[in-house]
């Protein structure tokens, strides 16, 4: 079980040396990183960052990968100017830090981003993906936002929405078998509750031997034993979006 006094011991993992192909824009009261595909499209994906924030090169790498696959990708600053978590921060202060950054209170920002995507980018079909803190945010949005078509929650912290399972849209849940933060019994319970309550398509997939953050916080070239699962996770994410957008 995860240590409850250190509820999200996220290791930053392999910090990518990556500059990003997109650009930073202002969307109402928030900043956002946007990357567009070479050809025009009406499909877009909102990328919700983890505790390390919207400027983490790893997250921009994934946004750019979505653009390469034909989607307008936007990664807004869901901390709205507040500092992202730093690996050097004291974990004892994590709970207090988290209190002002609630994954269930991002609706105002999402509304602003949806308006921007529709008005400025011509997007008609919009999905969402998120990592860790952002994965929990995806689950929140899949439970309540009617304007999104689908979501992919990557190692989203389950206990944040442990009692809510009536999803509005098809949702794909990605977990690592060796995730210290999300024990497998929580994943099993999630599957059971979805089976009982969920009326839309969903999938819960556990990737063998993988730890928290594996899809975006491990580099396949320096984690050769994990490479097949990193690539599979990314491919599964794209396939799910392709299916429902």
TrEMBL record:
It is found in: Cytoplasm, Cytosol. Keywords: Cytoplasm. SUPFAM superfamilies: alpha/beta-Hydrolases. The keyword Signal does not apply. GO terms for molecular function: hydrolase activity. One of its GO terms (cellular component) is cytosol. Residues 30-245 form the Dienelactone hydrolase domain. PANTHER family: CARBOXYMETHYLENEBUTENOLIDASE HOMOLOG. Belongs to the dienelactone hydrolase family. This is Carboxymethylenebutenolidase homolog.
């Amino acid at each position: 079980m995860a240590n409850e006094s250190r509820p999200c011991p996220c290791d930053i993992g392999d910090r990518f040396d990556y500059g990003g192909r997109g650009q930073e824009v202002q969307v109402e009261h928030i900043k956002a990183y946007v990357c567009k595909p070479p050809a025009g499209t009406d499909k877009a994906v909102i990328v919700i960052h983890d505790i390390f924030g919207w400027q983490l090169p790893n997250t921009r790498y994934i946004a750019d990968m979505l653009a390469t696959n034909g989607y307008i990708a936007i990664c807004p600053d869901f901390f709205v100017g507040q500092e992202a978590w730093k690996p050097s921060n004291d974990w004892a202060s994590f709970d207090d830090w988290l209190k002002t950054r609630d994954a269930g209170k991002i609706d105002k920002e999402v509304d602003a981003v949806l308006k921007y995507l529709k008005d400025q980018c011509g997007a008609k079909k919009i999905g969402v993906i998120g990592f860790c803190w952002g994965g929990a945010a995806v689950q929140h949005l899949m439970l309540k936002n009617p304007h999104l078509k689908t979501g992919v929650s990557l190692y989203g912290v389950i206990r944040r929405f442990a009692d809510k399972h009536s999803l509005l849209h098809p949702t794909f849940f990605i977990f690592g078998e060796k995730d210290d933060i999300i024990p497998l019994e929580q994943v099993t319970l999630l599957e059971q509750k979805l089976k009982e309550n969920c009326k839309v398509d969903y999938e819960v997939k556990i990737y063998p031997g993988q730890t928290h953050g594996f899809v975006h916080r491990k580099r396949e070239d320096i984690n050769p034993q994990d490479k097949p699962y990193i690539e599979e996770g990314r491919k599964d994410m794209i396939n799910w979006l392709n299916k429902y957008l």
